[in-house]
């Protein structure tokens, strides 16, 4: 069980507290956080986050394999989670989407993050 995050902020529950998540929803929020947080920006947790933000600095021919590597690094600490597929879709102007297909407890899940 964890606290719900939206756009980096905790989500209020409408009664003065904070919304809690569990199970699949909590896992997906954790995955999104790990993929969007910049790896190395948390001094006491240097392995937290991903390097997806660095994709635009690489030659186009290397971006797909780098996206796969960066996603695997970011999600390695999530128990019971398997990365099945990483799809990089570039939209120009240094922007891209990374869609990640996952398996957790036998269930297929998918998340998409914007990268710039």
TrEMBL record:
* Origin superkingdom: Bacteria
Q: What is this protein called?
A: Phage GP46 family protein
Q: Which organism is it from?
A: Dysosmobacter welbionis
């Amino acid at each position: 069980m964890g606290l719900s995050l939206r756009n980096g902020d905790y989500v209020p529950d409408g009664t003065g507290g904070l919304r809690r998540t569990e199970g699949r929803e909590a896992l997906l929020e954790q995955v999104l956080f790990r993929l969007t947080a910049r790896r190395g920006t948390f001094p006491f947790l240097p392995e937290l986050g991903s390097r997806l933000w660095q994709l635009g600095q690489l030659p186009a021919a290397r971006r797909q394999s780098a996206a796969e590597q960066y996603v695997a690094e970011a999600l390695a600490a999530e128990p019971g989670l398997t990365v099945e597929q990483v799809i990089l879709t570039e939209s120009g102007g240094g922007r891209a989407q990374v869609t990640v297909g996952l398996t957790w407890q036998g269930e297929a899940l998918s998340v998409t993050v914007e990268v710039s």
